[in-house]
Design a protein that fits this description.
The protein is mainly alpha-helical and about 425 residues long. It is built from 18 helices and no strands. The protein folds into 3 domains: about 130 residues, no CATH class; about 140 residues, Orthogonal Bundle (putative deoxyguanosinetriphosphate triphosphohydrolase fold); about 90 residues, no CATH class. The longest helix is centred in the middle third of the chain and has 27 residues. The two termini are about 30 Å apart.
Length: about 425
């Protein structure tokens, strides 16, 4: 399920970030439309105002609270993916709520139209810039070394790693893609998709298994610093709304209904944050100088940190998980010891024991075929290294249940 979520999120973020990846005729800035209020708009505005204050089933008070809801809808319409405005610009729109209120009460529409026209300019500037970058070539005629310093704080040094056996493949891929020690742009998107899928699934699993209650989740969310909520997504408010919706629907467990449906909305919000983070830092990402994840500086940054921290404190640091990890460590140590000893003399002239031969027979032919292909023309030392990788690949490919069953069988635990 987590992988399905991850692939779906990757596709959505890719679609949002690269929807300009087509050959288009870009109009000039002067050709962009400039909208202005018309006389007939005042009549329409007055009718809408009267509909809310007089003709509606429920009388609606046109006040600051109502104006905030209007701005929420307006901002969501203008920038659904959170890829155009900075937080400061959004705050400025909310600070001009008196102008929006005047637009509602007296049909003064100059400010809303000005905001909309500015939005058109932002879209024009963004897409024209992104299209221009697609025309730039990548220099593949360089030969650079790679230095890794995991204490540097640069995200490119955080996860970069490959086996010695794969270094030639790595160098070829790095040269063809033009990365050469820098992160490929798609890595940021895949990482964001992975983080969204796993961090939200961890919270949902923790709730289902009783590690986190509805009340505890709500209290954790209320501790988020000011300014962490997007204009269209307040985590606590959304959770409360889902809970009330569950009660109105008469579901058996409104708390479970709230958490599971809130998770879905949360994923959509975080996708928007990832999209904004990627497009806002597009040039730095493309030239390899960006050194953080794409949630940095977005509304989702603190929320993502909280989800990870909450799962660590309330789930992964509990005695149940510690016992499970210790058990898994015993199983893996046993299997590594047995299979490493078994492959030491595999594919050599030295005689192997009957038990070692039987252990080798457990390893899939696919893994053994890959070893033999890699081992052609290699020295004995390199072959030994590849045999150790053979064991590593075999164990990494096991499911938890298969590793446990194999351990029990090899120890005669019935």
């Amino acid at each position: 399920m987590k992988n399905i979520i991850k692939y779906a999120v990757t596709g959505l973020v890719l679609g949002c970030c690269f929807n300009a990846n087509a050959k288009l005729t870009v109009p000039t800035f002067e050709q962009m439309p400039v909208l202005a209020p018309e006389q007939r708009h005042s009549v329409s505005c007055l009718r809408i105002f009267n509909y809310f204050t007089r003709a509606h089933y429920k009388v609606v008070t046109i006040d600051n609270a109502f104006t905030k809801k209007v701005i929420d809808r307006f901002v969501t319409y203008l920038d659904y993916n959170h890829s155009l405005y900075t937080k400061k610009e959004i705050d400025e729109i909310y600070a001009n709520s008196p102008s929006i209120l005047q637009g509602l009460e007296k049909c003064y529409l100059d400010y809303p139209y000005a905001v909309y026209n500015e939005n058109i300019k932002k879209r024009y500037t963004k897409y024209k810039y992104m299209l221009s970058l697609l025309d730039k070539g990548i220099n593949l005629n360089t030969d650079k070394s790679i230095e890794i310093d995991r204490t540097s704080g640069n995200i490119k040094d955080k996860k970069l790693g490959f086996y010695y056996a794969d270094q030639e493949i790595y160098k070829a891929v790095a040269k063809e893609t033009g990365t050469e020690g820098r992160r490929h742009p798609l890595t940021f998107i895949l990482e964001a998709a992975d983080d969204i899928a796993y961090k939200t699934a961890d919270i949902e699993d923790a709730f289902v298994k009783g590690y986190i209650s509805y009340g505890q989740l709500r209290r954790e969310l209320k501790m988020l610093p000011e300014g962490c909520s997007g204009p269209s997504f307040d985590p606590v408010e959304k959770l409360d709304r889902k809970y009330q919706s569950g009660i109105k629907r008469g579901v058996m467990n409104p708390e479970e209904y709230a958490v599971k449906n809130w998770i879905v909305q949360l994923q959509g919000f975080l996708i928007s944050c990832a999209t904004y983070g990627f497009t806002s830092n597009y040039e730095a990402i493309m030239d390899g100088s960006y050194d953080a994840d794409i949630f940095k500086g977005t509304y989702g940054e603190e929320l993502m940190n909280l989800l990870g921290d909450m799962a660590y404190r309330r789930v992964f640091s509990t005695p149940d998980i510690y016992r499970m990890e210790v058990t898994e460590s015993v199983i893996l140590d046993f299997l590594m010891t047995k299979f490493v000893n078994a492959v030491l003399y595999y594919d050599t002239e030295k005689e192997m024991s009957d038990i070692d031969l039987r252990l080798i027979s457990f390893i899939s032919e696919n893994y053994k075929s890959a070893y033999h292909n890699q081992a052609k023309g290699k020295s004995e030392a390199e072959k030994l290294y590849l045999r150790l990788l053979l064991v590593t690949d075999y164990l990494c490919g096991m499911t938890d249940s298969y590793a446990k069953r194999l351990y029990q069988e090899m120890n005669a635990i019935i």
